[in-house]
Structure formats: C-alpha cells, structure tokens
Amino acid sequence: MSTLVREPHQNSLDAPAAAGRPVRTRLSIVGPAPEHRSYFMNLFAGLVPHLKASGIDLADIDLGMPRILLVEDFGTTGLTGDFTDRKDKQPFNNFWRRIGRSTKGGTAGGRWGLGKLVFSSASQIQTFFGLTVRHDDPEHTPLLMGQAVLANREVDGRAYAPHVFFAVPGTTGLQLPESDPAAVGAFRRAFGITRNTEPGLSIAVPFILPQITEKALVPEVLQNYFFPILTGRLTVEVGGEKISEATFDTVSAKYGWGSPEANTGLVSFVRELHLAGQPDAVLGPGWTDSMEQALEPAVLEKLRTGLATGGLVHVRAPLTLRRKTGKAFETHLDLFLRKTPDGSRGRALYVRSAITVPDEARYFSPRQTLGALIATDEGITSFLGDAENPAHTKWNGQADKLKDWKNAAAKLREIRNSLNRLQNALMQAVETVEPDALKDLFSISDAGEVKPQKTRGPRPSVPPVPPPVPSGPKSWYRIERSVGGFVVRPGAGLAEENLPFELKVKAAYDVARGDPFAKFSPYDFDLNRKQIAIATSGADCTVTAANEVTVNVWSTDFSVELQGFDGRRDLIIKAAR
Hints:
577 residues; 6-stranded mixed sheet; alpha+beta; 12 helices; 26 strands
C-alpha cells in the first residue's frame, strides 16, 4: 500500500508545471457500473487468453464490472517528449517504453524505471492505463495507453514476452498512444477520469486488490508525504477528503495517523523549519572531522544555548562531491535541531528534494531532540538519488549508480552521520536545582516557622552507576553502562580497515544463583516488543532474540544505545564478535 502511494506522488512532484506552485493529486475508487459492462468486456476480450496462459484465475473476476483505482495529478507537465516511432530520454518514453532503466537525475525523485510496476501489481489482472495531457502541447490532445505485465507464456503456439500493450501499432514496432477523441472519450466515461484538457497524468488501475480502499490510502498519504504537504508543495484529495497544509491537523486527527503525542511535535517542527530563513551558522572546512572545530567558539555557544532553550537551530554544511568524470559539485545540506517541547524522545527526518527517506532515521540517536537533514541542492540530490534503493526508503553506499562518484561510500557516511554529529556537538548536560521538587510529597503543617534541625542520621543514598563493562585491550568496541541501559561505542582498537564487522550483544537481569542468561525470561523484557528504545548511529541493529541484538558496524564513529531497562535491577551485558 505504501509503495502504491509513494510512486505516483514521486513522479508528480518531479514534474511541476510551474516552480513554486503546489502539485495537486486526486486518488479515488470508482465502483463497478453496469452501464459500461459491454465496453469493459470488449476492452479486455483480447487479453483473456494471455491472462489464462499466465496462470491468473478468472473464476471470481467479472471482466465487465471492474473496481478501479484512479490516481490523477494536476499542475504538472504530463508525460512530455516524443510519443511517435522514435525513442528519446523524456518522460513519455521513460514511463511507457523503458523497463528497469531511468534517465532521471538531479532533483528528480524517481530513478529506477521500475516504479510503475506497482500499478500492475495492484491489479488482479496485472493491468493499468495512463491518460496524459502535456503542458507543451498547444492542442492539449489527450494520449491514452495501457499495459499488462504478465508471465512469459505461449498462446496458440506462439511465445510472448511479459509486457502487453493497449496501444496503436507503430510502423517501427513501437507502441503508439490512442488519440482519437471518440475512443478517448469512451475510455474517460467508463473509467471515471475527471481530466479534460488540464495538463498532467491520470493512472487507472482496474480490478484493484480488495484491501485497497480510500480509507486505507489516507494514512499512507499522511505518513509518506507529510513533508511536502506541510511545506505547501503538495495537496492530495482522497475520495473527497482534501489533505493540504491547512487541513492536515484535522485529517490526521480524524484518521488517527501514528502517535498523536509524537506527531504533534513533528508537525510543528516541519512547519517551523519550512519558515526558517538563512541558517544560523555555516560550518567551516573540516566539519566532517570535527563539528566543534568547524564553528567559532562564540557561534558554537550560541547554538548550544539556542538548542537548550527550545529554539530551532539551523546549520548549513557545505560539501564537495565529485563524479569520476571530473565534474565537481559545490553543494550543501541543511541540518535542523530542536528539543522536544515535553522532554519526550525525539525523531528525525531525512529528506531529499520533497521525498522523505524513512529508513535513514535509524542513524539518528534522538536524545529528546527533533532533527531534520534536508537536501535540496542539485549536487547533493543527484548523489543521494543515485544512492537510493528502488523503493526510495534508504541510501546504500554500495549502490550501483554510485560507481560514477568518487569516494561515494565515505561521502555517504559523512552525510548520513552529519545530523547525529551536530546533535552531539550541541547537546550539553545541564544540572539544575529544584528546591521545591518534593514539596508535595514531604510537607509540614504551617504552624509557624520551623528551623531546620541538624541530624547525624544516615544520608539518603543514590545507587551508583555501574562501572563500564571491560572489553579488553585495544578492543574494537566498548560498552558504557548507565541506570536504565547501556551504549556500545568504538573501542581504542577500531580502525577503518576493520570495517564492517558484526557484533552480537545479549542482556539479562542478574540472578541470585546460576547463569542470568540461562534464566532469562521474556517477561523481564522483550526487545521484539519495543519495550526497550534502540537508537543507532554508524551501525545497523537487528533484534535477533528477546534479549539479543546483532549489530552491523560500518563506521568508526558508531553508537548503539539501548534504554528502558529496569534501573532497580542489575543488568548483565555480554558482547562478542
């Protein structure tokens, strides 16, 4: 469901007709209409033998009564480029005629040429259609095509490749779109297309899977595209429910998006950083080695004070990226931090252009802070786009397209770790004295002034913080304990050539007799149930048992923090490579 929402919106945000104006999309489900039965039966008649040869069971599918998902965008350019018998590297050819390849670059969101497969995957008959009007066409002629993605198959003794097109045959073998007004008009009426001559693209997916509903699509829009919506770049309508910058709070409350407590702070944070002007500071050379040294002492102190007092901190990090061709990009990324208003655990956003890259948030260790890494400059968005997986959910330092960049893996580590390192540079432990903190628990009647009495009785004791777990001389890692948890950090012996390496970490509460790990019970704690908060930087962490995690370390400046254990019990920790 998530990819079904992400893919079309990435393409729509890639193609605004005018800079600075929001893109509008409309998602709706059109129910079966008996008056169009004959149209649909004729439309799909030629496809039936191919569906059967592909092993698709049509027993429970009435080909005359499709349930249709419509995804339409407005305020976009439409699928521009040559649609005749020639191929070019423009959107029309990229969408309809390229499989597994894409010519997108720069700030464009989609890159892989595979995203459109999400439409056929959402159809019980593996089929979708597209109707486009291009903004540079003075006649605004609608162009219609369709595609089915089936198995390799044999029909009437003839072998067929997976892709089937609903199209007009071209003289060179390429498929051409239908542009006849009568044919296009009949399609629009039967499928419920609302587009007339407005530029943009309408996708129609017939016989959508039963679990796809308008109600189910709304939370996916909120979750995946809150950033461009809140920053005024996108407006989405789902079944008549309009989701915009102005209505976002009402809609998210109505549909119960995520945790209200967490999202309230996140939404206000996004709105605040959207209104931010020039950065509070620009990091100097060498920030990838030391954030503190890249800032003047007075500026560093000002940023620390601003963060400690609840203000928004905005720092720009300049970066030079080079392609192997020799072309250099003097680019930058913007880093934002703000303390959570209620002292709750923070969250992070990693954004390329208008696309959030959700899995990258695991590399930020939120210590009661909200953080955002925003990359919008062309140089850095080109680099990060080449690092993304096909689903656009995370960056991979070993991605195939990064082979065109110099020192790609190291540069990605610098970018990925920048937000966490800025937080480390600005966060300071602050001790405060609260003389009235316990007055509601311990009080005396107001019968006149009572002078404090000196006593020689025992003083209240505070349980000492357990000492660090010894990890041996020149170990690649060390474990620092605290009341309520522990942190795994680099040891004195860790060097770049040791990376990557894997570490297994187990924990258990101590027992009076016997092996605490042998006597561990999931009733003590269970890492699978999120009872313990896990934050990572420079490493991936996977829960492999109720009391065990496997850590894959890829940075010499890594940390893995586990917090939320019972501070009244002794925690035993065991780690091994």
